[in-house]
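dude i think i finally got it to work??
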Amino acid sequence: MSRGRSLCRGLAGAALGAIAARTAFTRATQAPRGDSVDDVFLGSGPSRDLWARTNFRGEKVTLLEGPALAAGTCAAALLTPGVPGRLRMATVTAATGAAGFGAYDDISGSSSARGFKGHLGALARGEVTTGAVKVAGIGLTGLLAGAMVERRPVDALVNGALIAGSANLLNLFDLRPGRAAKVGLIAGFPALAGPAAGAVGPVLGATAALLPEDLGERAMMGDAGANALGAVLGVSAAAALPRPARVGMLGAVVGLTLASEFVSFSKVISATPPLRALDDVGRRPAPGPQAPDTATGADHRSGVRPSDGKDTPPITVPAQQSLQTTRRHSNGGPDRT
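look at this
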């Protein structure tokens, strides 16, 4: 297939993904009869309070961006014309699995264990954390999606590891408004004209459509959105690259994930002017001096320490403004397992 046709297919998928994600987000945050928009969108109503968080400004935000991103991606992947059936189903499987297990960790997770070390330590003590469940679930759905892309055992295994690893890696960047979305858009853009355009287009469109909500600090991806975005990028790489390139990319993903246990991605970005400038594009000005978050530290918008951070103390919010601050906000974190 020519690059021009692939690009057209990718752009069509992106348009469908943007429309579907915006529609899903609007419907999810629409106030039912008798409730105000503030009750639903910001989580004051009983039907939405599981998705509500309070950011470091003391403002209420919603985690519904993540499920909307995944829903828009899946709908567009099913509707985009000309996508091979196996690639279509691999995309839906990866996005659904990553978002589902990510949402479980978003809602039910605690801060008792952080990072791979924390979860492995908890397992050694006989404790099964929500992060461990998420890792296992995304790993299994990643393997299933990888086998849909390529049936040969070795390729299926490499693909599955790449999909699951990419899901986790994207989540490491979800520590500032819009950061994970920008990383995903930059990483996926070259694939719009490649053989996996029908897989990557929908998730890029959905991500771009919801980016203003993220940058405006009205909503956040959470594990559901960041994991889904990373997983679909992994599917597109698995479908487009030869085995040696996939193995090399998997090595890079594993290397970055391990590095996040020891190196602060946020500090690296802050210390690199071009990266810092890109990271700040579209973001609201900071309210004042704040404790630095790290790839293993406090969440970028929550007064609650994320479950996988470890070097930065949480930023507290005023008690009168806090909403569910006892419930861990799981939008990002170092190794958000």
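The chain is about 60% helix and 0% strand.
im so relieved honestly
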